[in-house]
């Protein structure tokens, strides 16, 4: 099934016509978004927490009045990404420069113009004192004899490149910032804090869809061509995800409120176990049914009882 980006001028127009409210991330490739990030200043930003700062700006991208939240993240991930990109691209520009230095120009004006044209293409490095060397070419091999006249005169470029710290800082700022958009411009109905929290909260739902890649789900064996059937399957999967996320949310909430933990796969105590791991922990529990006697739950241990206690009386009743 082909997917398309949500944040496009066409889709924004459709959602406006339908009265759909949304919170979405703005693609960094949009020129207006690039300008918004470039004009933002950390000194003018408000602080969410020690990792995030933000600045609210107005936008009319796609003909839709919106509120954009330019968010600056102080995580080290941007630094690692920029360093990796700079290393790779600067090495490529150095190789291109070495190739330019090996090139021979027949006249001095061409040699003088080449560094200027080459400098326009540099994105990660900058030129350092370009110079031009005049070289005489003689016929034959070996050292030319006294009074020999050169066959031709060529000009070659000499110089060096250095990493542009200013460009690196600009790119680091670009990579450290992202924009969240909403068409709810009334801050009393949706504050900047709620907008940010709403966007961050989407990741909890998105992570739930990881089960699509799980071999146990066998999603690769499903093939649907009819759009109606695809939509029906998506509805069923979304419903399943809601059911899947509900116990996970409840257990995590109870663990934090009661200041309790649950062991992860390595036995480390945590307060945010996944529903998948909890379900796996309950594998191997059986019901022994004896004639005329009460049903007996087998293999139920303290770890299981702890989860059932957090889930509530209705869940405990199934295993009592």
Short précis:
With 320 residues, this protein is α+β, with helices and mostly antiparallel strands.
Structural overview:
- The protein has 320 residues and is of the alpha+beta class.
- It has 10 helices and 11 strands.
- It has helices at residues 9-18, 31-39, 77-102, 108-120, 165-176, 192-208, 227-257, 275-281, 302-311, 313-318; strands at 23-26, 46-47, 52-59, 66-73, 125-137, 152-163, 177-182, 262-263, 269-270, 286-288, 296-298.
- The strands form 4 sheets. It has a 5-stranded antiparallel β-sheet.
- The longest helix is centred in the last third of the chain and has 31 residues, at 227-257.
- It is elongated.
- The mean pLDDT is 83.
Number of strands: 11
For the CA atoms, what is the radius of gyration? 32 Å
- Average pLDDT, rounded to a whole number, is 83
What's the SSE pattern?
HEHEEEHHEEHEHHEEHEEHH
So how many helices? Answer: 10
Helix content: 40-55%
Distance between the amino and carboxyl termini: 46 Å
| Biggest pleated sheet | 5 strands, antiparallel
Secondary-structure-based class equals: alpha+beta
Major sheet: arrangement of strands? 1-7-4-3-2
pLDDT < 50 runs, ≥5 residues: none
Beta-strand fraction estimate: 15-25%
SSE layout:
Layout (H helix, E strand, L loop, with lengths): L8 H10 L4 E4 L4 H9 L6 E2 L4 E8 L6 E8 L3 H26 L5 H13 L4 E13 L14 E12 L1 H12 E6 L9 H17 L18 H31 L4 E2 L5 E2 L4 H7 L4 E3 L7 E3 L3 H10 L1 H6 L2
Antiparallel strand pairs: 1-7, 2-3, 3-4, 4-7, 5-6, 8-9, 10-11
Helix pairs in contact: 3-5
């Amino acid at each position: 099934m082909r997917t398309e980006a949500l944040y496009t001028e066409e889709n924004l127009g459709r959602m406006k016509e339908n009265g759909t409210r949304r919170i979405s991330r703005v693609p960094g490739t949009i020129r207006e978004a690039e300008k918004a990030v470039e004009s933002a200043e950390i000194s003018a930003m408000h602080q969410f927490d020690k990792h995030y700062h933000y600045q609210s700006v107005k936008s009319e991208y796609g003909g839709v009045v919106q509120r954009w939240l330019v968010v600056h993240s102080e995580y080290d991930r941007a630094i690692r990404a920029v360093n990796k990109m700079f290393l790779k691209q600067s090495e490529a520009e150095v190789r291109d420069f070495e190739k330019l230095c090996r090139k021979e120009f027949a006249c001095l004006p061409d040699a003088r113009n080449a560094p200027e044209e080459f400098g326009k293409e540099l994105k990660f490095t900058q030129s350092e004192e370009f110079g031009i060397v005049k070289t005489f070419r003689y016929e034959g091999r070996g050292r030319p004899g006294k009074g020999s006249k050169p066959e031709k005169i060529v000009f070659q470029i000499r110089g060096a490149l250095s990493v542009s710290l200013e460009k690196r800082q600009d790119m680091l700022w670009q990579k450290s910032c992202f924009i969240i958009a909403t068409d709810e411009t009334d801050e009393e109905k949706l504050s900047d804090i709620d907008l940010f929290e709403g966007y961050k909260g989407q990741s909890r739902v998105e992570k739930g869809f990881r089960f699509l890649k799980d071999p146990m789900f066998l999603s690769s064996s499903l093939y649907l061509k009819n759009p109606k059937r695809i939509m029906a399957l998506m509805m069923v999967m979304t419903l399943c995800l809601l059911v899947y996320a509900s116990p996970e949310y409840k257990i995590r909430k109870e663990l934090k409120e009661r200041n309790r933990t649950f062991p992860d796969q390595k036995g480390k105590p945590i307060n945010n176990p996944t529903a998948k791991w909890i379900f796996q922990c309950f594998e191997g529990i059986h019901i022994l049914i004896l004639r005329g006697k009460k049903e007996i739950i087998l293999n139920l241990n303290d770890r299981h009882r702890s989860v059932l206690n957090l889930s509530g009386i209705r869940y405990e009743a199934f295993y009592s």
